[in-house]
Amino acid sequence: MTIQLEANLQNLRAKAPLVHNITNFVVMNFTANALLAIGASPVMAHAVEEVEDMVSIAGALVVNIGTLSPLWVEGMHSAMAKAAQTGKPIVLDPVGAGATPYRNNVLTALLEAAPPAIIRGNGSEILALAGASIQTKGVDSTADSTDSIGAARALSERFGSVVSVSGAVDVIVHGNRTAWISNGVPLMTKVTGMGCSASALAGAFAAVVTDPFEAAVSAAVTMGVCGELAYRAAKLPGSFQIAFLDTLSDISPAHLAELSKIRLE
Amino acid sequence: MTIQLEANLQNLRAKAPLVHNITNFVVMNFTANALLAIGASPVMAHAVEEVEDMVSIAGALVVNIGTLSPLWVEGMHSAMAKAAQTGKPIVLDPVGAGATPYRNNVLTALLEAAPPAIIRGNGSEILALAGASIQTKGVDSTADSTDSIGAARALSERFGSVVSVSGAVDVIVHGNRTAWISNGVPLMTKVTGMGCSASALAGAFAAVVTDPFEAAVSAAVTMGVCGELAYRAAKLPGSFQIAFLDTLSDISPAHLAELSKIRLE
Amino acid sequence: MTIQLEANLQNLRAKAPLVHNITNFVVMNFTANALLAIGASPVMAHAVEEVEDMVSIAGALVVNIGTLSPLWVEGMHSAMAKAAQTGKPIVLDPVGAGATPYRNNVLTALLEAAPPAIIRGNGSEILALAGASIQTKGVDSTADSTDSIGAARALSERFGSVVSVSGAVDVIVHGNRTAWISNGVPLMTKVTGMGCSASALAGAFAAVVTDPFEAAVSAAVTMGVCGELAYRAAKLPGSFQIAFLDTLSDISPAHLAELSKIRLE
């Protein structure tokens, strides 16, 4: 197993996939610009009146619950059901999982209704998501979910999803496959929307790469490598976010592959 | 016919018109900053409970359907009706026209209820809008709407609106008048909200310039010239969007006029 | 009475308080980034289904009515009631007070239901807020509210709140205490979300400083000093907003105290 980073980024830029985002108010602008910068084509639409039509013309669906409310959740359900029905990969970003019962309930219902190709969150979100959607429902799991990697394995086993856990080292699991990605810089946690953009890029790669594990790894590496390059140019968060967008646009597929630090198992 | 670019920008900055925007979540921040940078005063308000009062104190209304939903559409209808009744110019940006039936239906209803002074979109949106609002209703048109300029003429004829079509060359039509504007750079398509800001600037100019055709041309030239100047400073999309805002604020009316590339017919 | 600026900023960064924001669509991204840059931890959540749970885990609540609508107002009421009940400081930003009757009515109801620790607005908003919530209700006030400082005193007397009036000189009143802060630069009025970020920072300081007057002064000084430092690096609004975020992150507590220009009475 190897990850074709160079080919995958070339492919993304050649196809410029339409990525349908139902995401939060805080990050919409940054996410749209990140998708444009890497070479994808973003569209944001959330109304139940049109999400089925929109996802039907998209290459992937990214659902992010950051600023959720009932009408938006209704749109998420419709869009995810249509995506599942038409074979479009779904990326779910469980922002703030564990913070409130409402988030946990919404996430559990979304996961049950249409299992995502990729779930991407930070460690505490993945832990909370596994707790809410598996343990609290009394579903047995052979995986140990007392840490975030165990939780990721449990979620992957239960829903068949690739689970991508962002952190100082990103860990991505699917079945018996695991990737550790050591790219990235701590400053990325000081800019809002970095995690959400990681999910959006996972959607962009999933739209053009058949294997969602490979798509998730490609997205995580792209985030991390571009974070490192941006940090060479900008050490403070305002200018860093701008340098990051510049880097997404400027990086060559060969350079991406060259700077990647992936361990596969 | 000439376009008084220098006087129009001076006028805009002297009057700092209040521009009422009902726009999409993705671009609200960038649009507000673009309006502030050029010298206007932005306000965003969408609730049906207050849009009539807000548009009553504004100099122009900009409606952009990018992330539409029923409650927002209700606010758009109220605001447009009040704007029409009180003689405030309306700019309509049909974001994503043609992407879903819901968008087409909403746009058709908005156009019928309160014809805008200016409609601004890209070629495919203008084509889709003409298709949805004219052809599908069986309304005869003498204009050929098989290309975007023909579609623009058909829309202009049907609704009395100035129609501004953004592209490599912007084309603006109204009755028997046409302007071709050759300013701008391709990188503008890689930053989200550039088109939406073009519509917002059209609203700002329309608030201070009597002739909506002249307002639309002034806005398109301002976008294009500032895009060219920003590109001299920044060749990548993150830093380009920042340089663009800087340029909107910094450009002198004389410099704007000097760099304009307009052909009128 | 002195303001422990250095200790307060150290304290904020050491504790990284969770600040719950119910704010407007235009500024959410900038506000979240400003909170991250200064060292706080932002969360945005507005649905009535979860705001009580969210405010319960937060250190402060910031309510900003910029793009209000009935469902959001419902969330504001729930969150403010829960904050009052659990002793979490509330900051209220009355964006656009006076612009429409709907805004005035919503603000009056919010003030009556749960008096904020801090009210922060510009002069015209504070004047309008006092007019709507005091004068129009026939409540006697010993304060002269014909100017914004008089209005601030009247609001402070009526609701027990610290009232922070942003302007060329910021004025902050509470009971018989007044602070005049002469930091800041005019360019701050040309970037959207600066006032909203001032309110968010007031929430961050209020989460870690017991006296809300001291929290409000610390926030206003932080905004003003960082604005001055950012202006040394960037004289135009696009790059200024980026330099401002950089400065929030980079400024040392000692430097903040050194550059502060406060007059207390």
From TrEMBL, chains A, B, C:
Pfam families: HK. Pathway: Cofactor biosynthesis; thiamine diphosphate biosynthesis; 4-methyl-5-(2-phosphoethyl)-thiazole from 5-(2-hydroxyethyl)-4-methylthiazole: step 1/1. GO terms for biological process: thiamine biosynthetic process; thiamine diphosphate biosynthetic process. The gene is thiM. ATP binds at R120, S166. It comes from the Bacteria. Keywords: ATP-binding, Kinase, Magnesium, Metal-binding, Nucleotide-binding, Thiamine biosynthesis, Transferase. InterPro entries: Hyethyz_kinase (IPR000417), Ribokinase-like (IPR029056). SUPFAM superfamilies: Ribokinase-like (SSF53613). GO terms for molecular function: ATP binding; hydroxyethylthiazole kinase activity; magnesium ion binding. The keyword Transcription regulation does not apply. Its cofactor is Mg(2+). CDD domains: THZ_kinase. It catalyses: 5-(2-hydroxyethyl)-4-methylthiazole + ATP = 4-methyl-5-(2-phosphooxyethyl)-thiazole + ADP + H(+). This is Hydroxyethylthiazole kinase. Catalyzes the phosphorylation of the hydroxyl group of 4-methyl-5-beta-hydroxyethylthiazole (THZ). Gene3D superfamilies: 3.40.1190.20. Its EC number is 2.7.1.50. Substrate binds at M44, G193. Belongs to the Thz kinase family.
